């Protein structure tokens, strides 16, 4: 009976989330409701809830999670400083002489925004507002324009430093230690957020190369769909080299400084995030876009996003304790262990479930609800934790791009002009979905794409 209650608990949480209630309240409220029902019918031991204060103090004292508000601050500050707008205009002029050049510019700027904000919604909306009208006005096929904007926006899932990878790395780290303890290993190895950053670097860059490769292919087989910027428009700019140095180099240096300090082992992700936050303030001041109202707006946005993240963490802690109290983790472990195909069969089922959940739930909900349940079981089967984290991240990235429910499609639909139909957006993302599925296939065949760089830099973890 307790195992049935664990399934009902999970199903109830998903239904309440789909109805639209706040995530933190949905998770904590559902957990407490089922804990009360279980206590009344003698199916649940309330001693499990005694661990909630320790979980909350654990979240508040987790130094890795301090990187979240710092990276959010960095991204919001760069957005307010109009960095994206200037970057896009400059890159468009740089690649303007070639067909597909504006689309390539969107890919590169999307990658840089992903590395600075790490928030899918913010990147898609920003790129949609800035680049979609320009691309359509210059004769781009609306399917190509919408497809490249959505795909570039989802790079925030995988291009480090990403908030998604920070949160996922913390959850994977806890799951890895739990899996080793369950196997009787009392001196467990660790996996860090920095490991996931390194692991995501090659797959993320390969995705960007794949997107650009598709645009080049499109420029060859259907040149009219991706026209070049007219020469008379390009000639209006007198000193392109000076503009590139002024607009492109500073944010690029900031991203390199943040990532380089992590990858070089000079700083933890949290320390690097503080460097990024300060660098974003300096960059905004250099652009003369820093004022007290802007700073106040940035701090307010950062506080709102950070509060949401930590409230979800607390709600997820309550939910996971009640789920474990009902024996749900044992149920999941037995189910995955008994699947045909061993770890391959278990991995396929988990990836499919997460893919379909990505249609309806945000990455934070999946990260804090689903990953802690399935990751320890998969890790006990011998799956590499870094590879598992990157597979999860790209899987969710693909889910957010897939019709009819992909989040990135909804974000773009909200800012796209009425002349562009929803069907056009759906058709535009299909080639990019195939590129991401190809990336998942390559990672499955060659896990070293994700594991080689972390092991090279940090040695055997």
From TrEMBL:
This is TRAP transporter large permease protein. Its main location: membrane. The complex comprises the extracytoplasmic solute receptor protein and the two transmembrane proteins. GO terms for cellular component: plasma membrane. One of its GO terms (molecular function) is transmembrane transporter activity. Belongs to the TRAP transporter large permease family. It comes from Proteobacteria bacterium 228. It is found in: Cell inner membrane. The chain crosses the membrane at residues 7-36, 56-78, 90-113, 119-136, 148-176, 196-217, 244-266, 272-290, 302-324, 344-361, 368-388, 394-412, 424-446. Residues 11-448 form the TRAP C4-dicarboxylate transport system permease DctM subunit domain. Pfam families: DctM. It is a multi-pass membrane protein. Keywords: Cell inner membrane, Cell membrane, Membrane, Transmembrane, Transmembrane helix, Transport. Part of the tripartite ATP-independent periplasmic (TRAP) transport system.
């Amino acid at each position: 009976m307790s195992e049935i209650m664990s399934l009902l608990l999970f199903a109830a949480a998903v239904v309440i989330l789909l109805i639209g209630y706040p995530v933190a309240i949905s998770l904590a409220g559902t957990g407490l409701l089922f804990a009360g029902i279980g206590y009344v019918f003698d199916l649940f031991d309330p001693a499990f809830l005694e661990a909630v204060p320790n979980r909350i103090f654990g979240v508040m004292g987790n130094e890795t999670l301090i990187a979240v508000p710092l990276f959010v601050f960095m991204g919001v500050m760069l957005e307010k400083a109009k960095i994206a707008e200037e970057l896009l205009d400059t890159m468009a002029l740089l690649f303007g002489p070639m067909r597909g050049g504006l689309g390539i510019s969107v890919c590169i700027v999307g990658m840089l925004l992903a590395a600075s904000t790490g928030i899918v919604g913010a990147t898609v909306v920003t790129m949609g507002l800035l680049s979609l009208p320009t691309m359509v006005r210059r004769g781009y096929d609306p399917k190509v324009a919408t497809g490249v904007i959505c795909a570039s926006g989802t790079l925030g899932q995988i291009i480090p430093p990403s908030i998604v990878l920070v949160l996922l790395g913390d959850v994977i780290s806890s799951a890895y230690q739990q899996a080793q303890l369950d196997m009787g290993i009392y001196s467990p190895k660790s996996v860090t957020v920095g490991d996931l950053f390194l692991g995501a670097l090659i797959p993320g860059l390969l995705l960007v190369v794949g997107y650009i490769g598709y645009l080049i292919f499109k420029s060859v087989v259907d040149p009219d769909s991706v026209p070049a910027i007219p020469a008379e428009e390009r000639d209006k700019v007198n000193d392109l080299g000076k503009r590139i140095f002024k607009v492109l180099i500073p944010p690029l240096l900031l991203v390199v400084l943040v990532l380089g300090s992590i990858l070089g082992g000079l700083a933890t992700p949290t320390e690097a995030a503080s460097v990024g936050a300060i660098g974003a303030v300096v960059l905004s001041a250099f652009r003369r876009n820093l004022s007290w109202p802007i700073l106040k707006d940035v701090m307010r946005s950062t506080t709102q996003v950070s509060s949401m993240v930590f409230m979800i963490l607390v709600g997820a802690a309550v939910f996971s304790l009640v789920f474990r109290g009902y024996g749900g983790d044992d149920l999941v472990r037995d189910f995955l262990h008994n699947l045909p195909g061993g770890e391959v069969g278990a991995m396929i089922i988990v990836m499919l479930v997460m893919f379909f959940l990505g249609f309806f739930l945000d990455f934070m909900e999946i990260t804090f609800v689903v990953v802690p349940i399935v990751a320890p079981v998969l890790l006990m089967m011998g799956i590499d934790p870094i590879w598992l984290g990157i597979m999860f991240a790209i899987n969710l990235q693909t889910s957010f791009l897939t019709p009819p429910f992909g989040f990135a499609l909804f974000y773009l639909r909200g800012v796209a002009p009425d002349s562009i139909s929803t069907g056009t957006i759906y058709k535009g993302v299909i080639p990019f979905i195939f590129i991401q599925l190809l990336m998942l296939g390559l990672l499955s065949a060659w896990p070293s794409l994700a594991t080689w760089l972390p092991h090279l830099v940090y040695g055997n973890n």
